[in-house]
Amino acid sequence: MLLDLKYAIRNLARARGFAIAVIVTLGLGIGANTVIFSAVRGVLLRPLPHREGDRLMYLRQSAEAKGSDNIAFSVPEINDFRAASKALAQIAEYSPLTLNLVEDNNASQVQVGLVTGNYFDVMGLGPVIGHAFTAKDDGAGAAPVMMLTYDYWLSHFGGDPAVVGRFLKIGGRTAQVVGVLQPAPFFPQKIDALMNMSISEHHVSATMVQGRTHRMTEMIARLAPGVTVDEARAEVAAITARVHQDHPETYDAGSGYAVTLTPFKEVLGKDSRLTLWLLMGVAAFVLVIACANVANLTLMRGVRREHEMAIRASLGAGTARLRRLLLAEHLVLALAGAALGVAIAYTGVGMLATFTARLSNRAGEIQMDGVVLGFALGIAGVVALLLSFAPRVARGHQLSTELTAGSTRTTVSGRRRRLQQVLVVTQVAVSVILLTGAGLLVQSMKRLAAVDPGLDTHNVLTMEVPADFAAITSREKTIQTYERMATELKAIPGVQVVGLGSNVPLRVTQFQLDIKAEGRVQNPGEPQPQAEIRTADPGYFKASGMTIAAGRDFNTTDLANSQRVAIVNQTLAKLLFPGEDPLGRRVSWTGEVLKFIGLKEDEWMTIVGVVRDTKDGGLDAAPVRALYTPFQQGVFPTGGLVIRTEVDPNGLAKAAREVVRSVDPQQPIEKLMPLEAIRDE
What we know:
With 681 residues, the protein is α+β, with helices and mostly antiparallel strands. Helices cover 42% and strands 20% of the residues.
């Protein structure tokens, strides 16, 4: 075989045009398949880095009738499962929180997961340096401790092992870094660090521990030995039914409360599975087209080599020997194509990982490892084998006859033509499928581009300026700081209007409360309506390009101690007051959760305006129900700044950052970007 390979290389060197065409064609086909397979393997097929990752389960509580597919759990609900479950060996708690980290007078926002001491045992994860939390780190009296995620350790601290043992100022308190966690994907969002609950007074308060409707915690569990996923699901369903029966006042039947159990690996790949397999299918079609092209080239070259094959046959070479020569030649071509394909895949894997990061937290596991390289070589082997059978190799006596007489050439040409016709039809069919899919995709993108987001995004700069977690205890001072930022931003040349609100436009807060309207009759079994709670100052809607469809905007008389007023969007107005004028009507937040966040039942707000709907959840999503209160009347003083400009907003980004830092040097500034960029995300 080695001699055959040497001969194949010499032979291909004399047919460079053919060889280059085949190698490039196969390289593109194999490269496309290799890079997509690297994503499929990294996100969907690769075993989790967690110990016995297939035993790791994620529990989700939903209230589908309220439009909520994940409402999280309260601590009492989690304790119900701890007490009753035998199928779940351990249950850990995880609560996401955003905190401000201050270092050397510089502040940044950190995404933190607050966890119980058994979290690392349940997850099957350990530190690369330092140590994990233990049971002694639970409870209100425990000192705040912090474990950095591997990515944050590298990006923020440069991989310095000396960070372990340091004390950092975070969330208005001081916490010690005790370790760095091994690389691992997180859910439901990517985080920078893990901390114990004591960093947040609220999370260890009686409100949190005893409030059955105070749902802020995710539940992750590990299956008991010998228990199957189906058995655990059956038990979870039974426990859920008993809990609902024991607390009917909490779980109204009309809301559709349910708890589901899903393997953690499936949850991580849920949003990316369909997309990646579709891409894999497209890549396979590309390879089919490439192989059909190469097969046609091979057939045409085979015509010129028939005389050579006939001579070899006359000298005693059998069909198997001739086929082996062809296999060697196509193996050389396929391996060269695979090498080019791997090189192409190496250049594309980073871009694909960036794309996949929007769909899965496992995007960091996309890499060119041995399995992916083996996949590329496997494709090359299959392609070489198939192509070696494309040229016709007749039996020895037939080839000898062809050497002396051309009587059968018509028959041979007819067979070749039929094969070429099949290849052409295959190429056309696959190309039509791909072009149809591409056309549908282009049409979908055009439709999305034509969707009105509900506001004027041109020449608008936005930034998130989150309040420190401790700011809730100094509400008035924090509001004054934000208002000073807005005032000084107006003085920047080129700025038209500055708005201040709880969040920037076109972003959902995912903080919803039950809402009721005065005089509105709630039908039996009907779920309580919900809406996002937001704040806005008198300049917010104008700066954001949002239209007041009815009534008035907020003004400077809507202060903290003034009459409580609200502006609702069109979707919420239609839900609460179908066919009626909402202006002058009163609404109030409702539900047990109010007592946990400083609001009161029947604290009525008069609707003074209706704002046009905006596409906050995405251009292809339905508008969310939203209620705005004056910024000074808001519960949580945290901010998003919106700056409408007369010039390119990117040109004012640096000046805007400097103004905010001049007001508060320790203020984190996140996602400083034009509103058009948010629209296009």
